Amino acid sequence: MRVTVIGSGYVGLVSGACFADFGHQVACIDSDERKIEALNKAIVPIYEPGLDELVERNLSAGRLTFSTELAPAVREADVVMIAVGTPSRRGNGHADLTFVMEAARQIAGALEGFTVVVNKSTVPVGAGDDVERVMRETNPDADLAVASNPEFLREGSAIDDFKRPDRIVVGVEDPRARAAMEALYRPLYLNVAPLVFTDRRSAELIKYASNAFLATKITFINEIADLCEKVGANVQEVARGIGLDNRIGPKFLHAGPGFGGSCFPKDTRALALTAQEYGSPVRIVETVIAVNEARRDALAGRVIAACGGSVAGKRIGLLGLAFKPNTDDMREAPALALVPALEAAGAVVSAYDPEATEQARSHLPNVIYAGHAYEALDGAHALVLLTEWDQFRALDLARVRQLLREPIVVDLRNVYAREEMQRHGFVYHGIGRPRG
Ligand code: UDX
């Protein structure tokens, strides 16, 4: 099959490279000339484990091409995927569809023969209808069908998520388009994933409802963690105990600093707004948003309390800046709330992140960026673990103890065992776990 992907950002690039790896002929299009130039040399602009290799392999096999020229690639395609960004519109939380609609217009002007246009970007319910309307206005003779095929991949494990998804959701009403989507995903659903066909609006809502549900699950366990601290229970035990109930499930029950990233904050806000506009508010999601924001605003307070009530003149050694491990993404990262608040309270923050330092610099200019974990901790009054990169799990604790000026550890991801930390002489503060 010939697939053209418009937008070579996160979703577009991962999807395009994976479809090519399954043997489809894929053209990835982006208006950013420098990005396309780099991709043609197999230089991948984002950090995602395995993506470099995947791009390189399929580029040299000739199954994957990169170009700024939309029209020729659309003309030849059986399926065109729109995978451009849908940022939050400034001033309100709605998804900005400017890029999606512009792509739709350009595709409509270029397509030839029956073409399935697939929305992969996260778009509000009804956006598929708008895309179809715009395309038919632009090119009344076009033979096309618009499908919604939301993407559920997670940063850091995007390739595995794409190749081994729990399900593939396709919202489409046209039988020819359904057949094309079946052919596109055949390499996947034959062995692994159920292909769920539904109507377009339901597919669009499935994406938002999934993300909002997961964000709710995280927020729920975070509040239970706070309660655990008060009543002397252990949130990890509680999460294990409830997660073994199949109806609840064990995943997304790790208490922490609150969810961040490019999807959950944006998508929960967009869903809450859409629901309000339709006069059917999802109050539980509105609450999740507010609770999560308050949690992030309170992070510095946790650190300050652990440091005996003041961080003025103290140095805080921060491990991890990205919103989660295996990514360099700083979007809505808890660090963006924690670091300025600590600085405002008089602290100096020295930080190390294996990948996100460059991204962090412009947001957090006053941080002292270290070249490795131990350097960040050298002379610090406290260790604060914010992102659970694997390499922080097995630190040489005796060395850390020597480097720290005071033996305070604030573990915002619960990666360390209290007993071990105490054995090394640390005063240890986890999330939702009884104090020693
Ligand atoms: C998410 C969805 O998982 C994915 O399906 C969707 O397509 C995009 O949004 P992503 O943002 O890449 O993916 O990361 P994810 O691993 O889901 O984590 C999101 C946030 O929740 C992170 O800030 C993470 O630290 C936090 N989280 C996750 C927790 O605090 N606890 C958990 O148990 C799980």
Automatic annotation (TrEMBL):
Pfam families: UDPG_MGDP_dh, UDPG_MGDP_dh_C, UDPG_MGDP_dh_N. This is UDP-glucose 6-dehydrogenase. Keywords: NAD, Oxidoreductase. The active site is at residue 263. Belongs to the UDP-glucose/GDP-mannose dehydrogenase family. It comes from Hansschlegelia beijingensis. It catalyses: UDP-alpha-D-glucose + 2 NAD(+) + H2O = UDP-alpha-D-glucuronate + 2 NADH + 3 H(+). NAD(+) binds at residues 30, 35, 86, 122, 155, 266, 331. Residues 317-418 form the UDP-glucose/GDP-mannose dehydrogenase C-terminal domain. It is an enzyme of class 1 (oxidoreductase). Pathway: Nucleotide-sugar biosynthesis; UDP-alpha-D-glucuronate biosynthesis; UDP-alpha-D-glucuronate from UDP-alpha-D-glucose: step 1/1. GO terms for biological process: polysaccharide biosynthetic process; UDP-glucuronate biosynthetic process. SUPFAM superfamilies: 6-phosphogluconate dehydrogenase C-terminal domain-like, NAD(P)-binding Rossmann-fold domains, UDP-glucose/GDP-mannose dehydrogenase C-terminal domain. Its EC number is 1.1.1.22. Substrate binds at residues 152-155, 207, 252-256, 260, 324. GO terms for molecular function: NAD binding; UDP-glucose 6-dehydrogenase activity. The lineage of its organism: Bacteria, Pseudomonadati, Pseudomonadota, Alphaproteobacteria, Hyphomicrobiales. InterPro entries: 6-PGluconate_DH-like_C_sf, NAD(P)-bd_dom_sf, UDP-Glc/GDP-Man, UDP-Glc/GDP-Man_DH_C, UDP-Glc/GDP-Man_DH_C_sf, UDP-Glc/GDP-Man_DH_dimer, UDP-Glc/GDP-Man_DH_N, UDPglc_DH_bac.
